[in-house]
């Protein structure tokens, strides 16, 4: 049963990704990307990681993609002819990256046949996940939180500094 | 055989809860009109049936009979999809809400919740952040300036107030030690979190007022500025879906507040389900009361209040709760 669901989700994810990169209307592309994120979140759930599934929906589908939609709506992008033109300069890096990822995957499966099993019978409760994260990898958590903290300060500085400078310039113009 | 009984029970539960919610939403519309009427010294709807109790039915018939108009040059698919999105996301959250303690019928223990997720809190936050899409796409796909402005306002407002809402819930998870809503309710057997976490309760309550897009946070549909905001171009049953969705949201956020802060079904003397319903209805009354009383925020006030007051306060509350818990459990 789980395997069937997994394959349905996998097909949905691949289809969504394909549609996402080929749509010329950016809002439609984002809608397909959100679908892909849902499929991936459900895969995490199938793999026995409900916490990761929930975060995938909250952070990516619920926050990041909404910001994307917001910006696209503000910019009022119209379907652009230039964007739909297929040029190797545009597609090359993407295809290269996809090839590298695919080769890595094949390599993994070749080295360790265990990884090719679709569903592993594990279930990680949120508590266990938290303990593992903070007890086993405290340094990584610290580094990432420091990173985010610096980014937040940077965002604050840019937002504030840029705003006041622009305001003073406008006042100067008057 | 056991399996079939379990499936049947789930089906019955689903149908019961769905009927209950939709009826409640329909009658919340009537209650709002009646109560607002009384607050403004008039009667409110009282023509259809005794005291106007059949008014929701009449409204439904009216909405079904209206023409379902799709404006030209709109984005058809998204235009048709948006109202459904906004209702579905809200309805799905009810799946994780426990209404009463488990009931034992014919030797079966039936939990009074559709699905007791161990990530219930995150499920609620995740789906409520997804409800932004319905509003955003509804506004964008209508191809109208008013709807577009309403959609943009709604998006900005909802994502700004989701943050303090989520942050206000973290102390509860810290105290109860679980993401499951049933565990959170059981952690409030003695004292509800509204008493032990008053700051979180205040922040959460303000945020859910913003999430329902009602006065004083009704900027996305400010009538005198934006006609009706993101659902300006909608008519017939699709408008009805947005409209009822809002009231389902009201019932939902009332239930969620009851679960998180008012002790869920816990209470003396009366049966648990009565306590739960009573608390939810009281909260709905307070929502309506606030709508009848307060004026609307200005947009910059709304944003500044969310980002510069509520989020720092929520973080401070989190810090204090964490510190106290560390000290207590040392």
Give a quick precis of the structure:
By secondary structure, chain A is mainly α. Chain A is built from 7 helices and no strands.
Write the layout of secondary structure elements.
The complex is a heterodimer of chains A (174) and B (330).
Chain A: H1 2-22, H2 26-46, H3 50-75, H4 81-84, H5 88-111, H6 126-136, H7 138-173
Chain B: H1 2-39, H2 55-65, H3 76-93, E1 100-105, E2 108-112, H4 120-141, H5 145-176, H6 181-186, H7 193-196, H8 198-211, H9 223-226, H10 236-261, H11 272-293, H12 299-329
Antiparallel strand pairs in B: 1-2
Helix pairs in contact in B: 1-10, 1-11, 2-10, 3-4, 3-10, 4-5, 5-8, 5-12, 8-12, 10-11
**Greatest interface and its participating residue counts:** A-B, 22 and 27 residues
Quaternary structure of the protein: heterodimer
* CATH level 1 name of the largest domain in chain A: Mainly Alpha
What is the average of the pLDDT values of chain B?
Answer: 82
Number of helices of chain A: 7
- Uncertain residue segments of chain B: none
Structural class of chain A: mainly alpha
- The CATH topology name of the largest domain in chain A reads Four Helix Bundle (Hemerythrin (Met), subunit A)
| Fourth-tier CATH superfamily name of the largest domain in chain A | NADH-ubiquinone/plastoquinone oxidoreductase chain 6, subunit NuoJ
The gross shape of chain A turns out to be globular
State the end-to-end CA separation of chain A.
Answer: 70 Å
Distance between the termini of chain B: 50 Å
Tell me about the biggest sheet of chain A? none
> Biggest sheet of chain B: strands side by side, in what order?
1-2
Rg of chain A: 21 Å
Give the tally of structural domains of chain B. Answer: 1
Q: What count of helical segments of chain B does DSSP give?
A: 12
User: How many DSSP E strands of chain A?
Assistant: 0
Q: Write down the secondary-structure element order of chain B.
A: HHHEEHHHHHHHHH
Query: Which regions of chain A have little confidence, pLDDT < 50, spanning 5+ residues?
Result: none
**Gross CATH architecture of the largest domain in chain A:** Up-down Bundle
């Amino acid at each position: 049963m789980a395997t069937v669901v997994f394959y349905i989700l996998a097909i949905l994810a691949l289809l969504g990704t394909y549609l996402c990169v080929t749509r010329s209307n950016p809002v439609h592309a984002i809608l397909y990307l959100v679908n892909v994120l849902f499929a991936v979140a459900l895969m995490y759930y199938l793999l026995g990681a409900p916490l990761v599934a929930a975060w995938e929906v909250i952070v990516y589908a619920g926050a990041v993609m909404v910001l994307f939609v917001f910006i696209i709506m503000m910019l009022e992008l119209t379907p652009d002819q230039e964007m739909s033109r297929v040029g190797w300069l545009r597609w090359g890096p993407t295809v290269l990256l996809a090839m590298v990822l695919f080769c890595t995957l094949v390599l993994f499966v070749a080295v360790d046949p265990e990884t090719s099993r679709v569903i592993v019978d594990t279930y990680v409760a949120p508590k266990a996940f938290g303990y593992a994260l903070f007890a086993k990898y405290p340094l990584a958590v610290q580094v990432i939180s420091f990173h985010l903290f610096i980014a937040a300060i940077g965002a604050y500085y840019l937002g504030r500094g840029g705003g006041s400078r622009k305001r003073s310039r406008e006042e100067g113009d008057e | 055989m056991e399996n079939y009984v379990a499936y049947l029970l789930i089906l019955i539960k689903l149908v019961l809860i769905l009927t209950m919610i939709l009826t409640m939403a329909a009658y919340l519309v009537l209650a709002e009109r009646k109560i607002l009427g009384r607050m403004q010294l008039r009667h409110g709807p009282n023509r259809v049936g005794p005291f106007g109790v059949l008014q929701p039915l009449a409204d439904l018939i009216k909405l079904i009979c209206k023409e379902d108009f799709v404006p030209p040059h709109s984005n058809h698919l998204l235009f048709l999809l948006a109202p459904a999105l906004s209702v579905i996301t809200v309805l799905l959250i009810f799946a994780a809400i426990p209404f009463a303690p488990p009931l034992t019928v014919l030797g079966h223990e039936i939990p009074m919740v559709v699905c007791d997720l161990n990530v219930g809190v995150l499920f609620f936050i995740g789906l409520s952040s997804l409800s932004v899409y319905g509003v955003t796409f509804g506004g964008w796909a209508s191809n109208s300036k008013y709807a577009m402005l309403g959609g943009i306002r709604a998006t900005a407002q909802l994502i700004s107030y989701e943050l303090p809402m989520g942050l206000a819930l973290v102390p509860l998870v810290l105290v109860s030690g679980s993401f499951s809503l049933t565990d959170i309710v059981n952690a409030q057997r003695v004292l509800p979190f509204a008493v032990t976490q008053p700051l979180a309760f205040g922040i959460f309550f303000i945020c859910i007022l913003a999430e329902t897009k009602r006065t004083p946070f009704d900027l996305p549909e400010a009538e005198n500025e934006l006609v009706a905001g993101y659902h300006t171009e909608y008519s017939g049953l699709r408008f009805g879906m947005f409209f009822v969705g809002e009231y389902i949201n009201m019932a939902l956020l009332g239930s969620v507040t009851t679960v998180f802060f008012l002790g869920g079904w816990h209470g003396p003397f009366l049966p648990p389900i009565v306590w739960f319903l009573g608390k939810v209805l009281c909260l709905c009354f307070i929502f309506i009361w606030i709508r009848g009383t307060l004026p609307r925020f200005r947009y910059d006030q709304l944003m500044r209040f969310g980002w510069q007051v509520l989020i720092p306060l929520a973080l401070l509350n989190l810090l204090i709760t964490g510190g106290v818990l560390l000290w207590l459990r040392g």
